[in-house]
C-alpha cells in the first residue's frame, strides 16, 4: 500500500475482522471457512507491514489482472456485489436489529479484500496504466452504466432497510416482516406469555382487571412503541387500580380468540377480568373465507417466476416496487379486498357461522361474570362503505347485551389520511389509537 491513509484503513479493517471474528466463535464447524479467511488476512497484513513490501506472488497476480482494465473493474464489482449480496440475503440487516460479531467480521473482510484488489502494490505508474487500459476498452461505457445502476440499487436498498421498516395493510412486504421481527416478535418485545404487553399483575386483589382480545389492531400493528397502542393508553387513562392485559396476536380470527382468552387466564386464576374488550375488525371473519374466490387476500398476487420471486423475497428494493407500487396502489385490488369482507358479513349463510363463533365470546363472559365491550373498527379509509358489515356486527352484540364502541362515528369526523399508518397501511395510527382509548375509557367509566 503506497498511501499511508489506505494502508491505515487496510490495517483497521484487518484488526476489525480479527477482533469481531474471534468473538463470533470461528471454531464452530459452520464458521471454519471464516477462520481460514481470518488466518489469510492476519498473515498477509502482518507480512506486508513487517516486511514493508508486497508479497511477490500476489503482486504479479494483481498486475496481470489490472493489465486488462475492464476485467479488473468487473472483478471488483463482482466481489463487492457478491460480498454484500450474500450478507444481505443471509442476515437481512435492518434498522432495529443489531449486527452480530460474525457479520462485523465478514464486512470488515469484504472491505479488506476490496482495498487489496484496488490498492495493493498500486503506485502512480500502475494507476496511469490502468486508466489507459480503461480508456481504450470498448466495454468501459457498459461497465459505467452497470456500476451506476448497482450504486442506485444499493443506495435504495440501504435507505429502505434503515428508514423504511414499516408495515403494510396485508402483511405481504419484506418491510412488514422485518417490522414484526424487530418490534413485535421475540423476548425483547413480548412478555412471558408471548404477547406484546407488559407483564400482567399476578395479584390484583385491589385492582380491576381488563382483558383486550383481538388481532393486529389490538397489538398496535405498525406502531414503533406499544405505549401508543390503545390498550396501553387505556391503562394509563384508567390509572392506579387497573390492570389492562393484552390477549391478542396479529392474524387471529374470531374462531380462536375465546380459546386463547380462556388459556391466558388459566395463568392468573382466580384473578379473572371484570371487563373483556373484544377489538373487532372486518377481517376477523377470514377463517370462513378460504376459497380463492372469496378470500380477501387472494386479490393480491405473488410473483410466479422463481428468479423474480427470489429477488422480491430477499431484497427490499424489488419488494417495494412489486408490492407497494404494483399491488397496493391498485384501486381494483383494494376495493375487491374490502368488498369481499363486506359480502361475507352480509351473506346470511356465512354470517350465521360467524355469529355462532362470536356467541362463544358472549357465553365466556357471561360464565365468568365479565362485562363485554366490543371495540368495532370499520375500514378506516372507507368508514361509510363498511357500514353494511359494521351495522350487522353491532346489532348482534347489542342484542346480546354487550356494550358496542363503534369507531365509525369518531373516525368519520377525521381525515382518513390522518388516522392510518401510511398510504400502504390502513391500520390505525397513534392518533386513531388515542381516539379508541378515549372512547373505551368513556364506556368503562361512564364519563
The DSSP helix count reads 18
What percentage of amino acids are in beta strands? 5-15%
Total E-strand runs: 7
What order do the strands of the largest sheet run in, or round the barrel if closed? 2-1-3-4-5
Examine the secondary-structure arrangement and name the CATH architecture of the largest domain.
3-Layer(aba) Sandwich
What is the CATH superfamily classification of the largest domain?
Answer: SGNH hydrolase
Walk me through the structure.
With 447 residues, the protein is α/β, with parallel strands linked by helices. It folds into 2 domains: 4-162, no CATH class; 174-445, SGNH hydrolase (Rossmann fold), CATH 3.40.50. Helix content is 57%, strand content 8%. It has 18 helices and 7 strands. Strands 2-1-3-4-5 form a 5-stranded parallel β-sheet, sandwiched between helices. The protein has a two-stranded antiparallel ribbon with strand order 6-7. Strand 6 (420-422) and strand 7 form a beta hairpin. Helix 1 runs antiparallel to helix 5, helix 4 (69-91) runs parallel beside helix 7 and helix 10 packs across helix 18. The chain starts with a helix and ends with a helix. The model has no long low-confidence stretch (mean pLDDT 92).
Amino acid at each position: 500500500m503506497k498511501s499511508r491513509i489506505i494502508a491505515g484503513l487496510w490495517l483497521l479493517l484487518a484488526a476489525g475482522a480479527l477482533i469481531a471474528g474471534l468473538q463470533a466463535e470461528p471454531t464452530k464447524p459452520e464458521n471454519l471457512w471464516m477462520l481460514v479467511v481470518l488466518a489469510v488476512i492476519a498473515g498477509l497484513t502482518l507480512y506486508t507491514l513487517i516486511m514493508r513490501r508486497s508479497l511477490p506472488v500476489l503482486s504479479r497476480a494483481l498486475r496481470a489482472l489490472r493489465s486488462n482494465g475492464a476485467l479488473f473493474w468487473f472483478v471488483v464489482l463482482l466481489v463487492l456485489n457478491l460480498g454484500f449480496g450474500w450478507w444481505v440475503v443471509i442476515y437481512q440487516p435492518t434498522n432495529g436489529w443489531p449486527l452480530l460479531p460474525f457479520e462485523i467480521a465478514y464486512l470488515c473482510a469484504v472491505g479488506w479484500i476490496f482495498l487489496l484488489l484496488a490498492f495493493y502494490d498500486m503506485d502512480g505508474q500502475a494507476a496511469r496504466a490502468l486508466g489507459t487500459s480503461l480508456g481504450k476498452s470498448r466495454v468501459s461505457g457498459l461497465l459505467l452504466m452497470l456500476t451506476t445502476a448497482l450504486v442506485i440499487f444499493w443506495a435504495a436498498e440501504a435507505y429502505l432497510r434503515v428508514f423504511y421498516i414499516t408495515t403494510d395493510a396485508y402483511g405481504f412486504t419484506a418491510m412488514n416482516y422485518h417490522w414484526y421481527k424487530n418490534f413485535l416478535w421475540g423476548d425483547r418485545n413480548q412478555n412471558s406469555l408471548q404477547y406484546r404487553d407488559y407483564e400482567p399483575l399476578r395479584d390484583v386483589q385491589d385492582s380491576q382487571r381488563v382483558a383486550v382480545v383481538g388481532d393486529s389492531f389490538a397489538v398496535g400493528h405498525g406502531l414503533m412503541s406499544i405505549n401508543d397502542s390503545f390498550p396501553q393508553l387505556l391503562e394509563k387513562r384508567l390509572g392506579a387500580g387497573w390492570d389492562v392485559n393484552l390477549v391478542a396476536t396479529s392474524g387471529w380470527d374470531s374462531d380462536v380468540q375465546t380459546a386463547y382468552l380462556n388459556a391466558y387466564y388459566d395463568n392468573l386464576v382466580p384473578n379473572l377480568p371484570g371487563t373483556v374488550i373484544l377489538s373487532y375488525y372486518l377481517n376477523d371473519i377470514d377463517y370462513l373465507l378460504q376459497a380463492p374466490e372469496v378470500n380477501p387476500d387472494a386479490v393480491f398476487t405473488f410473483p410466479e417466476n422463481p428468479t423474480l420471486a427470489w429477488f422480491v423475497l430477499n431484497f427490499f428494493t424489488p419488494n417495494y416496487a412489486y408490492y407497494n407500487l404494483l399491488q397496493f396502489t391498485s384501486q381494483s385490488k383494494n376495493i375487491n379486498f374490502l368488498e369481499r369482507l363486506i359480502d361475507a358479513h352480509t351473506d346470511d349463510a356465512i354470517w350465521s357461522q360467524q355469529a355462532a363463533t362470536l356467541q362463544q365470546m358472549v357465553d365466556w363472559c357471561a360464565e365468568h361474570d365479565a362485562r363485554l365491550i366490543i371495540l368495532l373498527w370499520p375500514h378506516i379509509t372507507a368508514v361509510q362503505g363498511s357500514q353494511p358489515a359494521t351495522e350487522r356486527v353491532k346489532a348482534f352484540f347489542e342484542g346480546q347485551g354487550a356494550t358496542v364502541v363503534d369507531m365509525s362515528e369518531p373516525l368519520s369526523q377525521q381525515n382518513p389520511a390522518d388516522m392510518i399508518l401510511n398510504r400502504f397501511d390502513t391500520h390505525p395510527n397513534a392518533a386513531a389509537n388515542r381516539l379508541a382509548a378515549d372512547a373505551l375509557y368513556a364506556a368503562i367509566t361512564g364519563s
